[in-house]
């Protein structure tokens, strides 16, 4: 006793403390998981194909380098009366304003590929928004038209980039068919086959009708493009912009 008061000491077995700690960790983990899942569930879904029975495709060309190959791509598109959507980085557009004007003059769509081609999943929502807005301002100054579609660099579709695009009123665009033309082993023949006769992936044969095709300005792409356009044109396909494809019949399920 001390000062006439009795002090009581409660002893909690170590096993009980350990069990309580485990329960606390599990509870916190469950709460975090629910918040993450809820956040992911609310993310916008990127568009990578449109469900349609019409023989139409949207060719997209992502440009951050390879400007020397853009004229060759334009020649092939003109020859087959095909329209494409060029997703430009802001830094490329800033350094090539006359080429941007040429793309517009030839009737192609010009959209947003971010400014400096970072990994969207590795930077914050605000940093992604800055990338998009800088590019938007540059392209609008050159063309007089505001961009509204966003192709994330590297095709990344994490929460940071998707939320940034959504916050700015953009629709995120991915692809159905990938030429993978940036790889050294991608010959013109291989590139052509990936689009004209796409391989089965995950047990599914990609549907070419309503497909979005990904390309880059590469030498072998320039060589493959006339073959792609020629073969598919003979099959009755038309090549339209992403906006025209999306507004054609509505967005459908993807094959990727």
UniProtKB/TrEMBL annotation:
Pfam (any one): Polysacc_deac_1
GO biological process: carbohydrate metabolic process
Coiled-coil zones: none
InterPro entries: Glyco_hydro/deAcase_b/a-brl, NODB_dom, Polysacc_deacetylase_ArnD
Residue ranges occupied by any NodB homology domain in the UniProt entry: 55-240
Taxonomic superkingdom: Bacteria
SUPFAM superfamilies, sorted: Glycoside hydrolase/deacetylase
GO cellular component: membrane
Molecular functions (GO terms): hydrolase activity, acting on carbon-nitrogen (but not peptide) bonds
Full protein name: NodB homology domain-containing protein
């Amino acid at each position: 006793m001390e000062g006439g008061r009795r002090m009581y000491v409660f002893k909690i077995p170590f096993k009980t403390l350990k069990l309580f700690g485990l329960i606390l960790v599990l509870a916190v983990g469950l709460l975090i998981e629910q918040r993450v899942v809820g956040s992911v569930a609310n993310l916008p879904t990127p568009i990578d194909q449109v469900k349609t029975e019409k023989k139409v495709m949207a060719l997209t060309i992502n440009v951050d380098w390879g400007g020397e190959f853009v004229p060759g791509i334009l020649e092939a598109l003109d020859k087959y009366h095909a329209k494409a959507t060029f997703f430009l980085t802001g830094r490329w557009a800033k350094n090539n304003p006359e080429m941007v004007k040429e793309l517009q003059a030839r009737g192609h769509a010009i959209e947003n590929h971010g400014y400096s081609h970072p990994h969207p999943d590795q930077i914050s929502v605000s940093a992604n928004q800055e990338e998009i807005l800088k590019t938007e301002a540059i392209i609008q100054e050159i063309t007089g038209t505001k961009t509204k579609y966003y192709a994330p660099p590297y095709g990344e579709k994490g929460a940071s980039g998707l939320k940034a695009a959504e916050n700015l009123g953009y629709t995120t665009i991915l692809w159905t068919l990938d030429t993978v033309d940036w790889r050294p082993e991608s010959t013109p023949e291989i590139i052509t086959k990936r689009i004209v006769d796409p391989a089965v992936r995950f047990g599914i044969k990609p549907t070419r009708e309503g497909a979005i095709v990904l390309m880059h300005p590469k030498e072998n792409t320039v060589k493959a493009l006339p073959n792609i356009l020629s073969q598919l044109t003979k099959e009755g396909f038309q090549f339209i912009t992403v906006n025209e494809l999306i507004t054609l019949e509505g967005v459908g399920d993807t094959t990727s």
